[in-house]
């Protein structure tokens, strides 16, 4: 899943993981959990995340490679917020080729800047995430445009991208994603 900060990637990833019975792998969540537990990785990334910068590709790629090798990812997985750089795209290609697999679809969730800033400022009041201040939110959005938005064209050239409007009720966005996945032949397993 790709889209600007606040588009709803994490919210939708949790719902889709349950619907499609595959693990949602969120690099942001993995890093935050390491920060909270004060692991060596957490100590390395804490200030980077608080500033809204990207964690170095080498660290991020290693985290994803390790997570993808766990048994629950063998039958499918959903990546939330990875890859975000061209280097990460190439590393992911390499990892998946080594596992004899590939991505099936890239879900782009769109939302305009006013909406995402408003959502993230609202979340700041609820969760107190260090990177949800207005200055850092705007920096994260700029970094997304500079480093991550160009990946959409790269994946579109592979015909993998479906674009979903992220505005409106969470359930409505989920329905749009489920419909878009169906156009790529991806259906939820029977309950
Ligand atoms: P990450 O946690 O991935 O942050 P992000 O991309 O900035 O995404 P957000 O979690 O802010 O937004 P989201 O699109 O997931 O929306 P959400 O569902 O949460 O990454 C954090 C940091 O980790 C990065 O800045 C970087 O430092 C590092 N990092 C992570 N991955 C990396 C990578 N690959 N490479 C390098 N560094 C990496 O929703 C946001 C809010 O909106 C919530 O409050 C939610 O309740 C609300 N909301 C959701 N949907 C709706 C809706 N439809 N209507 C109203 N409100 C909604």
Automatic annotation (TrEMBL):
Keywords: ATP-binding, Cytoplasm, Kinase, Nucleotide biosynthesis, Nucleotide-binding, Transferase. AMP binds at residues 27, 32, 53-55, 81-84, 88, 129, 140. It catalyses: AMP + ATP = 2 ADP. Residues 26-55 are annotated as: NMP. GO terms for biological process: AMP salvage. GO terms for cellular component: cytoplasm. PROSITE patterns: ADENYLATE_KINASE. Gene3D superfamilies: P-loop containing nucleotide triphosphate hydrolases. ATP binds at residues 6-11, 123, 168. One of its GO terms (molecular function) is ATP binding. Its EC number is 2.7.4.3. It is found in: Cytoplasm. Pfam families: ADK. InterPro entries: Adenylat/UMP-CMP_kin, Adenylat_kinase_CS, P-loop_NTPase. Its main location: cytoplasm. Pathway: Purine metabolism; AMP biosynthesis via salvage pathway; AMP from ADP: step 1/1. Belongs to the adenylate kinase family. Consists of three domains, a large central CORE domain and two small peripheral domains, NMPbind and LID, which undergo movements during catalysis. The LID domain closes over the site of phosphoryl transfer upon ATP binding. Assembling and dissambling the active center during each catalytic cycle provides an effective means to prevent ATP hydrolysis. Catalyzes the reversible transfer of the terminal phosphate group between ATP and AMP. Plays an important role in cellular energy homeostasis and in adenine nucleotide metabolism. Monomer. HAMAP family: Adenylate_kinase_Adk. This is Adenylate kinase. The lineage of its organism: Bacteria, Bacillati, Actinomycetota, Actinomycetes, Micrococcales.
């Amino acid at each position: 899943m790709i889209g600007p900060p606040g588009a709803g990637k994490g919210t939708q990833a949790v719902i889709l993981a349950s619907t499609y019975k595959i693990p949602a792998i969120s690099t942001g969540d993995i890093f935050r959990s390491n920060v909270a537990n004060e692991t060596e990785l957490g100590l390395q990334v804490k200030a980077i995340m608080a500033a809204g910068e990207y964690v170095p590709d080498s660290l991020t790629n290693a985290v994803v490679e390790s997570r993808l090798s766990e048994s629950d990812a063998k039958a499918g997985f959903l990546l939330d917020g990875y890859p975000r750089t061209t280097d990460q795209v190439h590393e992911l290609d390499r990892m998946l080729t080594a596992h004899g697999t590939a991505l099936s679809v890239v879900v782009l969730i769109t939302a305009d800047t006013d909406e995402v800033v408003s959502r993230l400022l609202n979340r700041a009041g609820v969760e107190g995430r260090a990177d949800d201040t207005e200055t850092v939110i705007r920096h994260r959005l700029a970094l997304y445009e500079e480093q991550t938005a160009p990946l959409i064209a790269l994946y579109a050239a592979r015909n993998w991208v479906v674009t979903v409007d992220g505005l409106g009720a969470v359930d409505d966005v989920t329905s749009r994603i489920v419909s878009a996945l169906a156009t790529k032949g991806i259906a939820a397993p029977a309950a």
